[in-house]
Structures are given as structure tokens and as C-alpha cells.
Design a protein that fits this description.
The structure is a homotetramer. Chain A has about 300 residues and is α/β, with parallel strands linked by helices. The first copy, chain A, has one domain: Aldolase class I (TIM Barrel). Chain A is built from 13 helices and nine strands. In chain A, helix 5 links the parallel strand 5 and strand 6. The radius of gyration of chain A is 18 Å and the shape is globular. The N terminus of chain A is likely disordered.
Chain lengths: ~300, ~300, ~300, ~300
């Protein structure tokens, strides 16, 4: 017990807001490092806790292993010293995840966001996932954050697996993008004695997640409305719930539009409207149709953001 | 605009906590009105806003149309005058729902909880559902509450349908049992100018729902831990969020156990532990296995309730 | 073993094709018995094994218990003596199903089609379903056919439950509308020693079902293209698989259109095109949109039926 | 029309049975090329049309890009000249798929099996998938086979996309692992004029697929019961449907066990029983539990194979 408590005390503090940054591409679909730098400079003026590099919005499944590491390196060069670089190192196999985690730590990642492997989802029960994450965390030079994103993976990291993994000294938290708020509350209840930290995986349920004990969020919408998402977090932390609620309302539709509804192409389009480089996605992701584009715009303008 | 505002002002206030009461049966599976009365007397001492008769936990699909009306009559006899009787009058066809609504209003229902028809769920789009609810609300002598419970119906009442229906003067609110907290917040945002009221359909996300603007809850767990669910609601209404959070945590596992996990048989078993008559369910619902029963008990005891 | 073999020998032969007849309504949504009679007379000229009254296409969830029995009575009056009247008697509760089964048998049903109860689908495991069907079959005066239709119920009757139930002397077969052909073959393999008979629940996989050992079909499309569905069955039974295949192809799109795609309103519309009374559905089922109507027509005309 | 007919004539004939071979690993989870060679030698005595290298059963998501190519090279060295090497070259991005396709063709692949990209499944509509496959097929030096495997990808390649893609001169067929037999029949109906060829993705519905016009199968079970799967195919091709049916029955349970039920670990275990090298999977895939192992054995022994 003493051990776990002292472990809890030593855990990396990951509380706060992170944009899971998009990866800009040139028209020929190469990584556009210059435009990436431009975005990073603008983000450095916002009160983020850090950046997530290669969450689902970073099109990481479309990057080569080399590109994934290279992007981390590039971000590290620009990131303010007091911000965290949380790098997505998840691969399907345990061995590839271990290797990628090592490479990203070497490239400057402060901690790692490790998505559930999912291709053989029928076999990814608690036993398999606990085994996977334990091996990854055992070997990782930097702390690990679990990452459950059922909309992409078709798999929800089971609560019993999270509880057991929260006892690992090198696993510091969870990014939960599923949004089941009872589940989020249950995870907080069952893991807080370990100093385990839960991050909301979306701005759509950020306030509710704070209400039940989450300590931050990795929010696609923060790529676009970064200050506003940070403001919402601050209102929650300060207990100004009535103001928080009003702000939360205005973020739900834009958030849904750039995530579940229209996806990364919409996120990148919206970034253009707000002064960032978004641009094209890698194929097979397609640009929005004209009708979808108009709907996307309405979701921002009707809430007063455009 | 004036019209809708004055409509809003006149709406029945449904804010607060309701247990969706269970229907006790004798060993031969007849409705046990005496045991029902006993439960109602105990509930009358708790600070409920009212009772829901024939929500999903009342085994209403297992009652004959005559029994459904009879149970409403019986509840009306015992219910304190200042409490609301919200009766579940939903049937698959519009005409049967209209008839049942009329009969329940005649039997003393103060308002009606109308579940989405669902057998032909592939055809139950917004057009069909708006048409259904409009006809029901047009003809109903008492106000109507929409009811979306996808775990049972396989159907989530679409947000655009809710928004349009919120403008009907005789539709006063929604019970949302799906628990998607972003959706609940969005519904509140889009309907509050109409005075439309959202009730959480479960104690598992009650605090989060209050945080984003819900005004109450219809909570199976309130059949068992009625005072505690009311306490949680009161803490939320008073803005005592830190205390609310601690209480919310302790209700999640018991709530899941008596709803999604083990269902109505578990709810009725837990009622026995807390001094109410639960008893058998109508077939084909089966009693819990011994292993499930033990697990159920752990969910209450490990949270300090047994 | 001897017992079950002799039971097998005595089982009612249900092999062949059945249209699950639609229920015609007047413009005011009352049952239109005259138009029902008209349809029945036309059907009596086709080589059906019998009629299914109140399958999913009969809008049975929209009929009152009294109407359900009355429709069975009416059909019995017109049905040729050598055809079977298979009546859908499934209700949510076991006791209601037992009562309805008795009433339908009294009204002239030769056998009963009993859909899985489904509202509490999370609790409808093999134990509950075996218990339900056993009680129903024990008390039924006429043989019982199991009915699994996951598109409507969200529930697939488990194979282990089917296998166990196939040993009941009063359960003679299964209508499987899920269409998982491996599952259908497995059920045939595991139950044929009992003389258990499997009927395909749709014309879309009728030939494949015959190929793996089914003995007939309850096909919505047979309400419209009755002769053709019977022809397909006959080709399969005769082992003329190449001809069967060509006919099967031409039935797939029309079948999907009147079932999964556009549902009962499309079935009733198509009936009008082919000389039957279809007409309106009961609310909340809505008429097809103009666009859907055009698509529906194309599905028939492009396959040479219109 | 002439163009497409001549294209049809020139298409590579892919009809027949393929095992999607497993990838043996050493205890330290490296590719075990020696054991792979041993398996290949045994397979060379069976009447396969060819081998699929890196279908879902090959654990391809767990191989590095280099390993994927290396395994193809190794297989090519052992493969009999008259057999086809169908290599799985699908990646999430179009550009990676194009590159992998080129490398595998260079390594000796006769044709390519290209799985649907799926991580951003919400955006993988027909437009995106047609675009993806067209680019891949345009640039591929060898013919392309579409691959839809919803159990792993959560995505069913839409029929309208298949129909359009069937017109591409370098796309010769589809492996459909979803098993919806109406859909398979519809695809055959709509594409056969192009000479497009459909392969069943599983031995569980192989006979039914042949019945509706498929020309072969890629069957995990063929890794274990290769001769029997080929026998089943031959019986179907010869029109000996009654014998085919009896053999099909006996393959369903073993097939389900090594695919949907227990997955690749079960396939590899069963291979050991039948004289092949199976061995461990790469982590996070875990060995079967003792209970699962016993169940697996029963599925083979109760059907007369062990």
C-alpha cells in the first residue's frame, strides 16, 4: 500500500487540455513540416497542458513508422518547455508498440498515448489487453496513458482491465473517447487512490467528465477553438459550473461536426477558418462534399463561432 | 415567440426524482396489489417528485391493457396529493397509445411517459416519430413526456425530432435513458427556451445530467435507495458538486447491477434487502442465478449500502 | 431415443412456401376484412403450403389481442382445406403467449409461430427462452414453430436453445429470418434427427437455405410474387439448381426492397402493383416518400417483374 | 460492352480453394521461416488453387512492412508453379497500399488481396473506397481482389462500390468474409457479366456460396482440413449437392471454432493436431485457456475429424 501511494505521489501530472494535433500534408500528401511548425507556434500561445501527437485526429494510421517518429521530433523542437508532448505510440502488435514507444521517447515524448490494439477485437479481452499494456509500460522509458476510442477501434477497454492497469507505476492515466459518463465516473472512483488520471477524449462531454472527476481532456475541437476549450476546463476547475454549462452548450455541435459526424476532413477544414493550416487528408480520406461543408459551417456559425 | 413563451410558462413542472416502480406479483404471477400498496406507503415518506408507473422496470410489456390501467388506479389511491403520477402509456401503434393515454388519464395519471414504438425500428425515423407523438399529444388530456430507452427498444429518439416535438404545448419533457451526456446537453440547449424539461433515465449519470442542465431523474435505483438518490439530486440542485460527486460514485455500481447488468430480477431482489416487496418477475424473466445474486450483493456491500 | 424418433415421425409436415400475409386496413386504419378476403381468394390459387397470419409483415404488434384472433378466424374461413394456417401468437409474457396460442388454436390455427420475447433482451438468454417456449409448447393444443427475427427483436434465438427445444414433441420447426446461412445449416445438422424443420424467413436466401437443408420458407415477397417464390422452391426441391440460381438472382433486390430496405409500407405498395390489396399501414408506419417509391419500382422493373 | 467483355475474357482465373496461411513464429515471436517452409511443403500436395499470404489469419497487422514482403518471397520459393500466390497488401492509407502492392508483386505475388481500410470507418463510404481501390488497381502490376471482412474491420464494402469496381480491368474479384448470402448472390448477379469472381471468405458458408454462384473460397479451415475443403468445393462444382451438404455440415463447427469463436490461436492449435506447425501467436494474441482448448477439440472430434 505504501508503495502504491508513493507511486501515486510520483506520477506525472497530466491534468489539463491537449489538442490532438492534425498532421498537415502538401497537395502531394507528404507531411508538410513547415505548416506543422506554423500551427505549433500558434498553439504555443494557448494555455494548453501539452499536445497530443498522433491521436486519432493525427491520421497516424496513414503515417509510416518513420514519419510517426519524425513528426514527434519536429513537434518537440517547437513545444514550450513547460508543456507536455504526449505521443501516440500504439501499434497492433505488442512488439511494435514497444519499439515505437522507445523511439518516440528518444524523439522527445514526455509520455505515450497507447491505443488498444483492435484488429482481432474478438480476442482482445481483459487478459490480452492487460498483458499488452503491462509489457509496454514495463519497457517504456516514459509514462504511459491508456487510450480507449471505440468509434475507431470497435473496442472499449474493459473497466476491470483499467483498474488493474492503474496499479502499474508507469501507467498514469486514461484517455476515454467513448464518452459513457457512468463508466468514466466509475473509473475515477476505482483508480483515484492510485493517483490515476482520467482525460475526456472529446470536448462534447468535457464538462460532465470534469463534474465526475476527470482532470482534463484531449479534444479535437481544441485544434480549432483552443482558448475556448481551455476556458471551459478552467471554469470547471474553478467550480463555476453555471458559466461552464453555457460555454459547454456552444461547443457540442461544433465538436460533433469535427469528430463523429464529418471526421478529420472537417477538423482540417475548420482549422482553416480559424487561422490554422488544415488542408488535405491522406487518401482514402476524402474532402467534404459541398453539402457537408455547408452543414459544418452552420454548426460553428449557429453557435456564434463564425 | 410570445405564444411559445407563454406555453413554456404554463408547462407542468416535472423536475425532481421518480422511482419507476416495480410491479409486485404473487407466486402465481398475478399482480399483488396488497404488496404494491405496502411499497407505495413506504415511498410516500420519501421526497420524490412523484412515481413513474410502468416504465421499463414495471414489466409493462408483460401486463394486459386492463392491468396497466388498474395498476395506475391503485397507485393513484395511495399517492400523496403533492406528488405526480407519471404513467407509461406507450404502445406500438399510435391508436393504441392514444387509447391507453386516455384511459390512464381517466385513471388518475397526471402526465404520461410515452416510449418510442420500436418493432419496425428500421422505419421509425424522425418523420414517423414526430407524427406519432404529435397525434398522441394532440389527443391526450394530460401532458406527455417523451421516453427514449435504446437498451430496450434498439432506437434512440433523434435529437431533431425531440427539438421539433418540444414546441408542442402538451409535450413537457423527455426521459432519456440512453445516457449519452453530450446528447442530453444538446437537447437541453436546443429546447430550454420552450421550457422543455429533461429527466435522466438512470441514477448512473444523474449528477452529470444535472451538471449539463437536466432537472431530475427517473431512476430504477430509487426503488431501493430512494433517499440517497433524492439526496444526490438535492446536492446537485444546491450546487454542492463535491459532495454530490462522492455520493454519485457510490451509486454507480449498484445502479448498473439493477439495470443493465442483471435487470429487473436484480432490482426486485435488491428491493427485498431494503424493506420493500420485490418478489418474482413474470415469465420469461427468470430469477437470478446464485452466482449473479452474490455479485449483486457485492455491488451494494462494497459501496457501503449493505 | 425410440420416443424421440417416433415423435419425429409424427410431426406435422410444414415444408413449403408461406406468404406472411399483410393486414389490409381501411383509410381510418380499421382492419379491412373484405379486402383481406379478396387477397385470400387470390392466394388460394397459388401452390402455397399455407399462410402465415401475423408474422412481422402482418403488423401484429399494431393489432389488439381481439383483432389478432379475429383475423385468424377470418383467414380460416377462406383457406383451402389442404393448406396450413400458421398463426403468430407470440407476446412478451409467457402467460399472454399461452393464452393467445389457445385462442388462435380455437380460432382455427393449425400451428403457431412464436416470436422470441425481446423487450428485456439483455435477460433473454437460453435459460429464459427455453423456459418460455417449453411452457408455451406444453400447453399449446397445436404444434409450435420457433421464430427468430433479429432485425425486429434485436435478439437471435441461440442455437443451443433451438437444439434443446427441437426435442420437444410439440415444437416442429423454426422460422429463421436472420439469414446467417452457416447458422441455418448448423441448426439443420443438429436437429434433423428429431424431424425438426427449418424454414427460411426471407426469399433473399431461400435457395441457399434449401441448399443447406431447409424445407421451406416464410417469405414476405410471396405476398407479391407468390408463384415465383413457389417456383424457386420447386426448382430447389427438384435439384434443378442452375435454374433455381437464375430465378433466385431476380428475387433478391425486390425482396430486400419490401423487407429490410423499405419495410411493410413497401410490401403493401408492391401488392397493389400485382393485383392485391395493400393499402395504408397503421400509424406510426408512414407511407413511402416519393423518392423511395421510385426506387422500389426500379427494384422490381430492373429485374423484369414490372 | 465489347471492351468489358474482352476484359472479362482476359481476367485471371482465381476460382478454387485457398488457405489463408498462418505465419509461424518462434518462441521469441520472430517469423519462423523454417516451419513456414515445412507447412508449405505439405500444402503443395493438396489440390489448392493457391495460397493467400497475409489474410486476416496470417497476423499481417502484427508484421512489419519488411516482414510482410519477406514472407511473400519465401512462399514464392516453395509454391508449385501452377498455384497462385495471392498476397494481402492492404494498408490503411492509399499510398502505403500502393507501395506494398508493388513490393509484393516484385516479390512474386500473382495477385493481391486488398482489405478495406477501416480506422476512419465513419468516413469510408463508397466514394472513398472506390477512390482507394481505383488508385491501387491503376498502379498495381498484378490483378487485385477486393476483401471485405467486417468482423475485423467493422466495415462491409458496399455493394454499389463493388459493382462499380468490378468494371475496372485490373480488379478480378472479391473475397467476402461477411457471409451474408443474399449479398453474395446479389454481387454475383450484378458483376458476372464483367467476369468478376466471388470467393467465399469462410468454409462455414462455402457450399451456400457455390450454390449462389461463387467460384471458390479462402478458408481458414483449409489450413487444417485442406483436402476436405477442396472436396467440398469439388462436390459443389460437380453438382453433387447432396454429398456436399453432408460434408458441409461437418465443417461448420470446426470452422466457427477456428475463426469467429476462438480466432487465430485456435487455428494454430488445430494445425498442430493435423500435422502442421501452428505454434504461438504474436502478442497481444494470447494462447487459448484450457477450457477453450477443450471446447475446440470437441468441435473437431464430435464431427469425426479427431
Amino acid at each position: 500500500r505504501n508503495t502504491s501511494q508513493s507511486a501515486a505521489k510520483k506520477r506525472l501530472d497530466i491534468s489539463g487540455i491537449y489538442p490532438p494535433i492534425a498532421t498537415p500534408f502538401t497537395q502531394s500528401e507528404d507531411v508538410d513540416y513547415q505548416r506543422l511548425d506554423d500551427n505549433l507556434k500558434k498553439y504555443s500561445n494557448l494555455p494548453f497542458r501539452g499536445l497530443v501527437v498522433q491521436g486519432s485526429n493525427g491520421e497516424y494510421p496513414y503515417l509510416t513508422p518513420e514519419e510517426r517518429v519524425q513528426v514527434v521530433k519536429r513537434v518537440k523542437q517547437t513545444l514550450p518547455e513547460d508543456q507536455l508532448l504526449m505521443a501516440g505510440s500504439g501499434c497492433e502488435s505488442t512488439r511494435a508498440t514497444i519499439q515505437m514507444s522507445q523511439q518516440m521517447a528518444d524523439a522527445g515524448a514526455d509520455c505515450l498515448l497507447v491505443v488498444t490494439p483492435c484488429f482481432y477485437r474478438g480476442r482482445m479481452d481483459s487478459r490480452a489487453l492487460i498483458n499488452h499494456y503491462t509489457k509496454v509500460a514495463d519497457s517504456s522509458p516514459v509514462p504511459v496513458v491508456l487510450y480507449s476510442v471505440p468509434a475507431n477501434t470497435g473496442l472499449d477497454l474493459p473497466v476491470d482491465a483499467i483498474i488493474q492497469l492503474s496499479q502499474h507505476p508507469n501507467i498514469v492515466g486514461l484517455k476515454d473517447s467513448g464518452g459513457d459518463i457512468s463508466r468514466i465516473a466509475l473509473v475515477v472512483q476505482k483508480t483515484r487512490s492510485q493517483g490515476f488520471q482520467v482525460l475526456a477524449g472529446s470536448a462534447g462531454f468535457l464538462m460532465a467528465a470534469y463534474a465526475v472527476g476527470a482532470v482534463g481532456g484531449v479534444c479535437a475541437l481544441a485544434n480549432v477553438l483552443g482558448q475556448q476549450v481551455c476556458d471551459l476546463a478552467q471554469l470547471c476547475v474553478s467550480g463555476r459550473w453555471d458559466e461552464a454549462r453555457e460555454l459547454q452548450y456552444r461547443l457540442i455541435e461544433p465538436n460533433t461536426a469535427v469528430t463523429r459526424q464529418y471526421g478529420v476532413p472537417a477538423l482540417k477544414q475548420a482549422m482553416e477558418w480559424f487561422g490554422y493550416h488544415g488542408g488535405v487528408c491522406r487518401s482514402p480520406l476524402q474532402p467534404l462534399s459541398k453539402a457537408d461543408l455547408e452543414q459544418l459551417q452552420v454548426k460553428f456559425s449557429s453557435n456564434g463561432w463564425l
